[in-house]
Design goal:
It is a single chain. By secondary structure, the chain is α/β, with parallel strands linked by helices. It has one domain: TIM Barrel, CATH 3.20.20. The chain is built from 13 helices and ten strands. Helix 7 crosses helix 8, helix 8 packs parallel to helix 9 and helix 10 packs antiparallel against helix 12. The longest helix is centred in the middle third of the chain and has 21 residues. It starts with a helix and ends in a 12-residue tail after the last helix.
C-alpha cells in the first residue's frame, strides 16, 4: 500500500459524522466486565458478544472502523464468516490492537511502559493479511505527586513512535494513543499541563522515526480533572481546555484526532464531544475531531445483552443509539433529550 493509500484510509477513519468502535479489550478486561454483568467468562460468550457488535444493522452509518483484539480478529460468526469480512462487507474498516500491555517501568515506581515491539513487524504483516488496515498502541500515563517522570513520558513516546513507523512500513495506519489517566484528584489545569508535555514528546519522537503525520491518527484523552477532584467543570470548560491544549501540541498535518472515553460515562463523553463541535471551536482547529470509544459505546450494550441471546436485538439497538448520539455530537447537534428517545 502506498503512502497515498494510507492517507486515504486515515481520512476515511475520521469521515464526517463517523467514529471508531473500540472493541479491543483484552481477555482479562472483557472477563471482568462480563463478571460484573453476571455473564459467563468463556471464549464462546466473548465471541457471541463480539458477533452481536459487528453484525449490528446500520452500524456503518455512524462507525467508520472497529478496533479488534487478537482473539477477536481470529473469530467468526456462527455461520463461519470472519469478523473482518463482516465489517468490510458493511463498509467498516477493521483495525487491531497490537501492544502487549503496560508493564512496570524499571526504576520508576508507580509508572508503566507499554511493551510489544519485539516481533511486531511479523505480527503486523500477519494482521494485514487477515484484513486489518489500521492498528492501535496505547501508552498509559499516571498523574501523581512528582509523576509522570520525564523518563516515563520519553520511554512511552519512543515506543509509540517506533510502533507507528513499523505500522506504516506494513501498510497499516497507526493509531497513536497516549493516555493521561483520570485516576487521582488532579485538576483540569494539571491534566492540561501533562497532556501538553506528553504530546510534545510524542510528536518529537514521531518526527525522529520518520512517521508520516498525514497517514496516522492520534487518540488522546480529553483534558479532564481526575475522578477524585472536587471541581468537575462543565462540558464547555472541558472543550475549551481540550481544544486549546491540542492546538498548542498537535501539528496541523495529523490526519485526525479520535478521543478515547476513559472513565467518562456515555452521556458525559457525548456531551463533551458535542461541545468541541460548536462553531467557536470548529473554526479554530485544523484537524477533524472524532471518537474512538470503548466503554462509552459498549456499556449500555452489555447491560442490555446480559449474556442472553434473546436480548440481542435490544443490545444492538443500544449500540446504534449510542453511535447515533456520538455522530450527532460530531455535528454539534447532540442534546441530552436524545438519551430518552
Amino acid at each position: 500500500m502506498t503512502i497515498h493509500a494510507l492517507m486515504e484510509t486515515a481520512n476515511a477513519m475520521v469521515a464526517d459524522g463517523k467514529g471508531l468502535l473500540a472493541m479491543d479489550e483484552s481477555t482479562g478486561t472483557c472477563n471482568r466486565r462480563f463478571a460484573s454483568a453476571g455473564i459467563p467468562q468463556t471464549e464462546e460468550a466473548r465471541r457471541a458478544y463480539r458477533e452481536l457488535l459487528v453484525c449490528t444493522p446500520g452500524l456503518a452509518q455512524y462507525i467508520s472502523g472497529a478496533i479488534l483484539f487478537d482473539e477477536t480478529i481470529h473469530q467468526r460468526t456462527t455461520t463461519g464468516v470472519p469478523f473482518t469480512k463482516v465489517l468490510s462487507d458493511a463498509g467498516i474498516i477493521a483495525g487491531i490492537k497490537v501492544d502487549l500491555g503496560a508493564q512496570a517501568l524499571a526504576g520508576h515506581p508507580g509508572e508503566k511502559v507499554t511493551e510489544g515491539l519485539d516481533g511486531l513487524r511479523l505480527r503486523l504483516t500477519t494482521y494485514y493479511s487477515m484484513g486489518a488496515r489500521f492498528a492501535k498502541w496505547r501508552a498509559v500515563i499516571t498523574p501523581g505527586t512528582g509523576l509522570p517522570s520525564p523518563a516515563c513520558m520519553d520511554a512511552n513516546a519512543h515506543a509509540l513512535a517506533r510502533y507507528a513507523a513499523l505500522c506504516q512500513e506494513a501498510s497499516l495506519v497507526p493509531i497513536v494513543e497516549p493516555e493521561v489517566l483520570m485516576d487521582g484528584d488532579h485538576t483540569l489545569e494539571r491534566c492540561s499541563t501533562i497532556t501538553h508535555e506528553l504530546l510534545l514528546r510524542v510528536f518529537e519522537q514521531l518526527d525522529r522515526q520518520g512517521v508520516i503525520l498525514e497517514a496516522m491518527i492520534l487518540k488522546p484523552n480529553m483534558v479532564l480533572p481526575g475522578l477524585g477532584c472536587a471541581l468537575q467543570p462543565d462540558a464547555e470548560t472541558i472543550a475549551e481546555a481540550t481544544v486549546s491544549c491540542l492546538l498548542r501540541s498537535v501539528p496541523a498535518a495529523v490526519a485526525g484526532i479520535t478521543f478515547l472515553s476513559g472513565g467518562q460515562s456515555a452521556e458525559q463523553a457525548s456531551a463533551r464531544l458535542n461541545a468541541m463541535h460548536q462553531p467557536r471551536f470548529s473554526m479554530r482547529r485544523p484537524w477533524p475531531l472524532s471518537f474512538s470509544f470503548a466503554r462509552a459505546l459498549q456499556q449500555p450494550v452489555l447491560a442490555a445483552w446480559a449474556g442472553n441471546d434473546a436480548n440481542r436485538t435490544a443490545a444492538q439497538a443500544a449500540l446504534l443509539h449510542r453511535a447515533q448520539c456520538n455522530s450527532a455530537a460530531l455535528r454539534g447537534e447532540y442534546r441530552s433529550a436524545m438519551e430518552n428517545a
